[in-house]
Amino acid sequence: MKLKTLLAGICLVSSVQALPCTSLIAGKNATADGSVLVTYAADSHTLYGELYHTPAATHEPGAMRKIYEWDTGKYLGEIPQPRQTYSTVGNMNEHGVTISESTWGGRPELADTTGIMDYGSLIYVTLERAKTAREALKIMTDLVKEYGYHSSGESFSIADTNEVWVMELIGKGGKEKGAVWVARRVPDDCISGHANFPRIHQFPLNDKETTLYSPDVIEFARKQGYFKGKDKDFSFSSAYGELDGTATRGCDGRVWSYFNMFSEGMDRYLPWILESKGEVMPLWVKPEKKLSVGDMRQAMRDHFEGTPMDMTKDVGAGPYKVPYRWRPMTFKVDGKEYLNERAIATQQTGFSFVSQMNEAHPQAMKGILWFGVDDANTCVYVPMYSCLTEVPHEFAPGNGDMLTLSWDAAFWVNNYVANQAYNRYSQMIPDIRRVQNGEEETLDKEVKMLLAGVRDMSTADASAMLNNHSRMASARYLKNYKALGDYLLVKYLDGNVKKEKDGKFERTPEGVCVSPNFPGYDERYYRAIVEDTGDHLRVKEFKK
Question: Does the keyword Ribosomal protein apply (predicted)?
Answer without folding.
Answer: no
